Amino acid sequence: MGLAPMADYTDYPFRKLCKKHGAQFVFTEMISVDSIIQNNDKIIKMLPQKDEKNIGIQLFGNDPDKFCLAVQKIEHLADWIDINAACPVNKVVKKGAGAALLKNPKILSKIVYSLKKYTTLPIGVKVRLGYKEINIEEISKIIQDSGADYIIVHGRTREQFYHGKADRSYVKKLKEHIKIPIGATGDVFSTEDIYDYLNNYKADFVVVARGAIGNPWIFRMDNYIPNLDEQINVCLEHLRYMIEFYESETQAVKKFRKVLTKYFSGKKGVNEIRKNISSIFSYNDVCEIIEKNLVLKDTN
User: Is 169 within 8 Å of 196 (Cβ atoms)?
Assistant: First the structure.
């Protein structure tokens, strides 16, 4: 079981934290092949760091040649390469990348085939059930026949974004005729969800996305429920990792704002933190807002 690629979330500090709590493998957030080719300075922090193991780099784009050029530059940092054919965001889809590749299986096939010829690294593809209509069985066959080493399936179409429930049944259907490993993702928020995919739907592996944000304990796979002190300690540990990595306390805290309240979902006082989230700029600010709205209220 591993940590799924998530834009703006799966940076090095979060990957480090999740591995500490039991994630067996991780992915970078998705990175544009154009940015890599153009040597964009911003991607340096997005790529695997020198001490990371069992990590895949997720790439997005729509040009097979550019994928190969990008991989030439970064393959020494990765254990495998993952092709994003799942991102539903408009700015990605409009470029013919992400989930848009589900509408153009010939291009997706060529990307996989080209990369398999170009590099010795394993190549996988993260997909959705389809763009508007479900065509996952056709897409999966094409991906397999192009030489891919695995497929990760998110049980929604692009049109659904994250609405409704992820349909797990297609994982089991694919296992009937697809020979390469099938990974499952979508609505993994508990140990039960993980084992449901593995045992009832026969997934070869599971990757956790939103269910890991603010909850790295999910990788323990034992339904562990941390107490408030543990939540606070791990939350602040996460922030310290970010401050050290980004070498700017203000930048790290600003990036951390979207994660902070996830650690305390459902807790009394979290709404007050959410209301005042734009006022925190330092580690001490975070400590104070937690103390004021969670610790003191918990003892009253």
Answer: no
